[in-house]
Amino acid sequence: MEGPEPTRDHRDDTLLQPIAKSGRPFWMLVGTLLAIGLWGAYAWSTQLRRGLSMTGLNVPVYWGLYITNFVFFIGISHAGTLISAILRLSHAEWRRPITRAAEVITVLVLFFGMGNVVLDLGRPDRVLNVLKHGNFTSPLLWDVASITTYLTASTIYLYLPLIPDIAILRDRLGKRHRFYRALSLGWAGTPRQQRILNGAIAAMAVIVIPIAVSVHTVVSWVFAMTVQPMWHSTIFGPYFVVGAIFSGIAAIIIAMAVIRRAYHLENYLKPIHFNNLGILLLVMTLLWFYFTFAEFLTTYYGAEPAHMAVFRSKTEGQFSPLFWFMFVTCFVVPFSFLANKRTRGTVWGTVTASISIEIGMWLERFLIVVPSLSHPRLPRTAASYTPSWVEWSMFAAFISMFLLLYAVFTKLFPIISIWEVREGREHGIREVTERVESYLPAAAEATHG
Amino acid sequence: MVVDLDRCTACQACVVACQVENNVAPAGAAEWRQGRAVSWLRLVAFQNGEHGTRPELRLMPVSCMHCQRPPCIKVCPVKATQIDREGLVAQVYARCIGCRYCTTACPYTVRHFNWKRPEWPRPMEQALSPDVSVRPRGVVEKCSFCHHRLQRARDQARLEGRRLREGDYVPACVETCPAEAMAFGDLEDPGSSVSRLAQGPRVFRLLEELGTEPKVIYLSKGESGGRA
Predict the structure, then answer these.
(1) DSSP category for residue B57
(2) Are strands B182-183 and B56-62 parallel, antiparallel or unpaired?
(3) Cβ separation of B109 and A376 shorter than 8 Å?
(4) For B217, what's the count of Cα atoms within 13 Å in the CB-facing half-sphere?
(5) With a threshold of 0.95, does the pTM exceed it?
(6) What is the average pLDDT score of chain A?
(7) What is the ipTM, given to two decimal places?
(8) How far is CA A288 from its chain centroid?
(9) Over the stretch A378-429, which tens digit does the pLDDT of each residue have?
(10) Considering CB atoms only, which of A129, A222, A383 is closest to B97?
(11) Considering only CA atoms, which of A33, A83, A366 is closest in space to residue A250?
């Protein structure tokens, strides 16, 4: 050990502060979020009593806000695990204070993604029929399979790097001792334990990437496998994955900014972290534009009437205000903030871009689900879809419950990985120097060569 | 089933017969306004000809097409919709979880969801057909080609020790049609009247290009019916 003994290293004590004590603002936040959650419980009970007639859904718009939110939440889930795995595998040293905050988003938001599907069922009491009578030709069953796999893998992937930190809490905190002792699995920080842990984390990082890609591909296939206009498209798989990573990174940036401010972590989450994620986000902004352009040009050029009815409703018809607002929030705003070095280098600059992207990506999901259903191939007296108060309440409640669980997590576990920050301080600097040296010609070869 | 649009007068007797036969609850003004009326058979309006030149409105009775390759069956996560021995696309109400994937995957939009518990005005609930189950709230339903009539006809044929033959059973819509525009029978039997009707220049199917192979076949003269 080069640094002080882990339990006696006090340099990162700021990271334990939120767990040690909670102030009034925290409890007020909990109260507010719980109140919104309770309102959602009331809204849901109304829907259970009176059925889906409490929604604004109709024929032919059979799917609406719930399915939009399903896709949106699953998209956000791509924040954590995938980005964290990519950064870990590429040895990006600046990942250290970010990975955990990101991984928690994935694990928590997946529940709300799946919850939206249950909300959308006409007979939620029969949900287990999916296991009893599962039909594997249905993309919905592919979803069930890939999302449960993803949830399992990301939970393990979140838990593994938590173990050394739980051991620190066990030894230092003085409360919830049994809870932390049980979860720390007897971690003592021996070199052998550390080697096994690092191997397991690396293995999970590799495993989790294809699973994450499969999850959002399969979500898109729920739509793309039907023959409905502007759904039946081969671009949907990669388009959804790109959109998911796009909204995912934006979610990480927002989460980082909030915990930075709330827990005074300015020393850990620096503008450079926001800047680096901002560059990734800029790449995703451009990719999003590319995919959207490719999708719409292909449809427009082919000009099949059924597809064009949907196309026109988005670009110039009833959905056009939403569509162009989506274009501004998904591309114009983030591009101008992120391409500019001065705004990208600041926390508020990347956060503004990220909030804009979340709004835009939600609209994109809505504009995928609703316009296609509003324009079926056979003419019919189309009823337009306006989400009801129950649907909006459930949306608000799910977001609140997600935020609540996230806040509770930060009160139970360090939201920034303590041991990984230490590892960066103690080993990272030397490793990076060695790595850079290994890229260069050796001194002897350079002179003779 | 064959529907001769050149004979159809769009009187909607088939629509009413279907509703009564299959215990489809009548929709009130509110349901219609919300677009939630359940109708297993409906008239779809098609416009032929350019605007202003020679616009012509055509009404076509459209029910479940009982596709040979139905897009609804493969997407159902719980096998609640299946194609049976006779080639009818059937719905298992007791298993359906109400996810409405089949309703969105059906290009004909002929599958219906029970947004609320079906209700009948006072005396009507005493006139429900005992052969057809009343669907609970939250499941999907659709035209069954009056499957209960098939069961009855099959029982009768078995009783008489013979095979099912043409005319043993027709759905309520076909039986009712005053213009005799609808015919029903076995499309696999080359000698049946529907098989004979299903040949010739007037024949077309709805959205044939999607490859669903509908078993509802329309007849219409040349240009006026072509596109529909």
Answers:
(1) E
(2) unpaired
(3) yes
(4) 22
(5) no
(6) 92
(7) 0.90
(8) 16
(9) 876 666 899 999 999 999 999 999 999 999 999 999 999 999 999 988 888 8
(10) A129
(11) A83
